[in-house]
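Support reply, case 0932

Customer input (verbatim):
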Amino acid sequence: MENLWCFQCGRKYGTHVDTCRECGVELVDDEPMSPTEVGDESDPQLAYELHPWSFEARRMLDQICTSEGLDHAWQGASLIVREADEELADRLVEQVERSALPTLDPELEHVVYEMDGWGAAMQAELSRRIGFVGIPHEFDKAGDLVVHDEDEEEVDGIVDVMSSPDFVLDDGDDEGAIELDGLGTNELLTRVFVSCQKLARNPLDNMAIISFIDDAGTIEAIRTPFGLDREAWQPVVERITLLRMMYEGEVADLDDDEARETAGAIRDSLHQMI
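Our regenerated output:
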């Protein structure tokens, strides 16, 4: 064995390296397929949007797919398979969900949030937002949300935002948005990632601020990039908008620590997408 690969970004490394320098995950022995290699031109494809999953959970799924002989590829955090393999892919995704994703610990104290008055779309959005930050949760037989007591404060914050009279549920309409090609999108996201990496270290870095503001307006105007889940993409856009507003004076009393924290959160999210 002469080389190792990152299953997600496809970068090749020598055997002296065991972790992808870009993605931070353990390398695999087998060279990953590209999306165009999954099936042929006549084979419809399916994409499983797995952005809320950790790198470790995606790597586990990748290795299980390989061991089961399932042709697959990764496009960002999306798993690409042939439509004809949907049944097997569903089973493997469910297997990883049961074993690798956060679940409630029966030994810990739980908090229950009554969901009376919350429609199905709002509950789905609430679950997405809680899952996106890695908080274990489930809905009980009565349809109420159950979380660990230790996560109550963070969940309270999410529930409060969604309960606000000003909250509007995104209808998923991208009509009128700018559409960039894959290369243009990747270059844009990479620039924002680099800017936020600098701002997370020094929120007063003038060159990084200028670069970030220039790109933030484009981010806010583009369609959800191809291969990314809109539900995972929107929270990133919201954070980018917030940071832009901080630097443009639309948020009073800019706090360096808050700017640094927001920039770091954007950087971490983009790290999983580029």
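We compared this against your earlier run and they match. Two observations from our side: The chain has a mean pLDDT of 82. Residues 3-100 form one domain. Please reopen the case if you see a mismatch on your end.
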